[in-house]
Amino acid sequence: MHAYDVFFLLFRSLYIALFRYIFYIATRSCYRAALEYSKLLLLLDPQSDPLAILLAVDFFAIAAEDYEFLLNLYAEWNPSRSLHLLPNFAFSIPLVHWMQRFRPRRRAQPRSELSAEEINLMLQDALIMFPGFLPRLMKHTHVGGTNNLDKSLLFGKEVLLSESEALGRLLDVYVSQCHYYWQEPDVLAWLEVNVEAVLRLVEPVIIPGSSTSACPNVEPDPRLRMYSEKRKSCYLQAPRNVLRYLFLRELPEAPLLLPPNHGSQKIYPLDPFPPLDSINSYDPEAERHRQPAGSGGFFHALFSSLWPSTSTTDDNEDIADIHALIAELGLHMEEVQTIGEQPTQIADTEDAGPPNNLEFGGEFD
């Protein structure tokens, strides 16, 4: 079990305090500090990422112009964590490569090793995988060559048919955070070129000599169907860490989602959507049921009381260590377990009469 496991109530307060502080300093444009604190929050529990801070790491890295960190993180974690399935990484990675290659920055950045064509292909792949990005971005800016987007096969029909509510929230979060960087004129021109390339790949085209005005593309890109099926199967519902992120961020463009069967249960601002097997070490009754009976005797109970959230998964090893310590002291376990169990001598009160009742002769003022 992790040293700062989110299953324990007292540790969740630390996570939430860090999360709120990160976005507080981000509102003050302290993006470098926000990025460093995001790294800290992520390292507390990198496996489960209980507050889904990965949804904001790319935003802070771009704002702080720390492109190399974001690319290294993606290269290290994508094979095992499938970061390419998160819309923010799917779009931010080609954006960062493009910025490294074509835009000089204040901070010295290594030039992207990818060619311009490879960067374009990455962006086109992201547009086909997440077509809902473009309609959301167009609420903030105009993208040339995208008139009548509702009639588009990819950016209209596919968004309605294959985009789940959970995926829609991920796109809402990304666009609300990063739309500023996609609105810059040079980035917008690059995006328009790739949108036109995607439309040529997947949209119906007019075939010369045909009696119909529009026919299916002669060789439609196979990703159109493949990614549609992937969107339907991979984003059925949002995990609890994403629900916590939505609740704590309170973004107007990304409203809160509720887990299935939530009903009318309360959502506590200081502990939103706790784990289903949450451990409340402040509840003595729950802690007593969680501890196995007779595990370690007096000293084990003493050490557990000093740190009530100690994990019980390694109890056997802990008991063995306690036994070894007692053996070094020259004691036997049977002797130690009798400590604190000696009967207390109580004075014989059989002959003593009942206490005298106090009689108040006067009245209370």
TrEMBL record:
Signal sequence annotation: none
Gene Ontology cellular component annotations, sorted alphabetically: RQC complex
UniProt name for this protein: Transcription factor 25
Domain of life per record: Eukaryota
Pfam families linked to this entry: Tcf25
Organism from which the protein derives: Schistocephalus solidus (Tapeworm)
Disordered: annotated span: 344-365
